[in-house]
Amino acid sequence: MDEQLKQIGERLRGLRDALDLTAQEVADTCGISLDKYEKIENGEVDITISNLMKIAKKYGVSADALMFAEEPHMRSYTVVRKGQGLSVERTKAYKYQSLASGFSDRKAEVFIVTVEPKPKAHTIYKNTHPGQEFNLVLEGSMELFINGKTIILDEGDSIYFDSTKPHGMKALGDKAVRFLAFTVE
Question: Which helix (H) or strand (E) holds 11?
Answer without folding.
Answer: helix 2-18
